[in-house]
Amino acid sequence: MVTFFRAPVAPPVMLPAAAASMTVAQAIASQTGGTGTVTGYVVGEPTATSTVRTSSFTGDTALALADSSTTTATGSMLYVQITSSYRSAFGLLTNPSLMRTQITVTGTLTAYFSHAGLKSPSSMVKGGTGSTTSPTTSPTTSPTVSPTSSSSTDTYYASALGKSGDSLKNALHSIISSGVTKLSYDGVWNALKVTDQDPSNSSNVILLYSGISRSKTLNGGDSGDWNREHVYAKSHGDFGTTAGPGTDLHHLRPEDVSVNALRDNKDFDSGGSAATGAPGNYTDSDSWEPRNAVKGDVARMIFYMAVRYEGDDGFADLEVNDSVSNGSNPYIGKLSKLLTWSAQDPPDSFEKNRNEVIYSTYQHNRNPFIDHPEWVSSIFG
């Protein structure tokens, strides 16, 4: 008789699970002094146990996070200490445009201002969990950009999926030029009141460059009003305000009348003097640098226009080049800078919602570079 012996089976190896990001509510309930990673929306600057500023910020040492960008109850907020390494990038006095944006913070879950908090951060990054920004300086390389598509957008882009370069550009042009509803220039006023509505105040719109929340009723041409900014300057190709590129919501945004005039028809580049009335923006004789929170928005609007308008619909063939001296030619720059900005400032919830509203309610086409930001480098890189 032969006896068989079964070899002992080793127990399964248990791999450590990756650290998951907490919600703000979970962080408030976990004030144990341990380390945690929390994702939430910036809703203000805490100045006392039950006091949070939402404007006219006084410092760069603290911010409040919440699970909703519209939260006003301090009991639903997490107070986050901002140490010196992160103040230049995350302090609200220096970066007021961070309001209502999502960030992810890792640090010690312990009381701050005698309130549920997070202290001594070891990582702070814009957006949800992902790559982190090391303390001391901004990253020198661009963060990885991931697709933000869903099954519904995959259907919309079906004929473009799997393509790259000129083949991708041609496919996208066909997709975003089909079944489009063109608005009148007067119709743009009411549309912008919906597409750019302040998530925290439904009576207001958010101005693109200045980041100010201003009453929807203050649209017009007087000082203190907001008007319709053509991000792809309408003189670059001389399309004016004609239905089509002149009224395309994907590159029209609300902006203060004076700031709009200051930007004029300049190309985009870095540097210059601080723009009056628009903190964080800079300008010189031939270029405009938008604030950090909308640099990617600007780039993706320009890239959309270059794909949407190819000269086959009675308008000029709009293109992006690396110049800031384009005049009335149908080109706008600076390409190298726009590529950097698109990678550094990925689409946020405001930009994604805007794209969806334009698609579902107004023009019935989408900006593909918001849904698939990785397509920017495939076509323009």
TrEMBL record:
Low complexity bias spans: 131-153
Record flagged with keyword Signal: yes
Xref: Pfam families: DUF6359 (PF19886), Endonuclease_1 (PF04231)
Keywords, in A-Z order: Hydrolase, Nuclease, Signal
Annotated Endonuclease YhcR N-terminal domain residues: 22-125
KW Hydrolase (keyword) present: yes
The name this protein goes by in its record: Endonuclease YhcR N-terminal domain-containing protein
Protein source organism: Paractinoplanes durhamensis
